[in-house]
Amino acid sequence: MKILLNGAHHELAPGATIVDLMSGLEIAGHRVAVEVNGRVVPASEHEAHRLDESDRVELISAIGGG
Amino acid sequence: MSVAEEHMRQELSDPLTIAGRDYASRLLVGTGKYRDLDQTRRAVDASGAEIVTVAIRRTNIGQDPGEPNLLEVLPPERYTILPNTAGCFTAEEALRTARLARELLGGAALVKLEVIGDRNTLYPDMIATLEAAEVLVREGFEVMAYVSDDPLMARRAEEAGCVAVMPLAAPIGSGLGIQNRYNVREIVDSVKVPVLVDAGVGTASDAAIAMELGCDGVLMNTAIAQARDPVLMAAAMRHAVVAGRAAWLAGRMPRKRYASASSPETDLISSS
Predict the structure, then answer these.
(1) CA distance B163 to B193
(2) What integer best gives the mean pLDDT of chain B?
(3) Most CB atoms within 10 A, among B57, B89, B97, B268?
(4) Residues of B with CB under 8 A from a CB of A
């Protein structure tokens, strides 16, 4: 299935969870906030939260800034 | 007592209190525009800052997974991480960024709210800032608001429940110094929450002036990061903030129009 990941198309196995997505990107366990279709998904739900076709997913980090 | 110990003693006995927490350092620093994370870490360390700002952005998915990230270099266990809403031009964008930041930082409530109104000046859109502040305060955030240098707006931000107001002293990243000392002074007198100059500082004397005006702290990024030697400038800023605070507490001498000799004017050797 296709999702929109940080604004770009991304291919993902059907039924994949947020943790599956992050593992595939080799960022499992990293400090990343996740938003799906405009709503924050708490870290405690990443394991269980299954993504759907066309979901808009944002993975967010802290970077240098003032 | 060494100079460093003297600084430490003064900082400890005169804490900056924000949202009920005490900080020994009155210098807050940003983490943008550094050459690399190692320079960021060394400059932050030299600044003595305990509160450091970060930006919230999309994760760089293509990057080397082993590459260190900012929060490993500046661990939230050691520093109070102050996420900003920089780059947001609407209240809605700022709310979204603040909520993601809170999730990212394990529920930490502190946020630096900035809603920008103009791309050239990066002046805050105060109407949108106040709208966003009210919502964030209702949601339990501790809002440190980047505000214009209008004392009325600072008061409105305080009334909205912000835990600190942070007026600009000159445009963000301009390094023009404190261009509005009467406004800053008026804001200091207008609100009870801490007042921190945020934006405009260019060099150490600017930071000292902000503190001498009675500000509770100074937040800066570019003045350190874009100095020729950022780590040395970070140390200079630390000293300047401590010195400016001490001068404010000490109370400056009155200004006089005419000279007043410092040495006794009697018993001069040439007296006959």
Answers:
(1) 6
(2) 94
(3) B97
(4) 30-34, 40, 53-61, 65, 69-71, 81, 83-84, 86, 96, 99-101, 103-105, 172-173, 199, 219-222
